Amino acid sequence: MKLAILVAVSENGIIGREGQLPWHMSADLRRFKRITMEHAILMGRKTWESIGRPLPGRTSIVISHRPDYETGHAEVRVAGNLEQAMDYAKQADCDQDQAFVIGGAAIYELALPQADRLYFTRVHAEVEGDVSFPEVDWSHWEVKEESHHTADEFDQFDHTFTVYQRVRA
Length: 169
Description:
Radius of gyration: 15 Å
Oligomer: single chain
Structural class: alpha/beta
Keywords: NADP, One-carbon metabolism, Oxidoreductase
EC number: 1.5.1.3
CATH architecture: 3-Layer(aba) Sandwich
GO molecular function: dihydrofolate reductase activity; NADP+ binding
Enzyme class: oxidoreductase
Catalytic activity: (6S)-5,6,7,8-tetrahydrofolate + NADP(+) = 7,8-dihydrofolate + NADPH + H(+)
């Protein structure tokens, strides 16, 4: 199973503020749903707690170093590390070939060296926040798809959707 990362990042690297997204972007939320539907989604405990519930049509797997952590939802698996989360994703009841890491920063940092694809939304704004996306060595990635979108009544900022594929040596 391949590992993909799905993230929205501002021009100044921010991905979150006080446990929430620091913008309102309907198009990005629709893209998130379309891409992750029928897939396993892997997330850290703080991301799970900010969402607060299993997302319909997806298998939720929470990564936590706390072995006794409970989500309150029997269908949500808790993994002790990324490797165990990927094992759970392989066992998930979905016919998909990739699992998606959806946050937060520590989990992105763990997953970035192993990821095959990066579904990246560049939010064309500098925003305040308390969580940043880790540094990326872009020489290891090539653009496979890209589309630019203008802010409107549903999307607070201009943004670009890009799909990157890892370049393997």
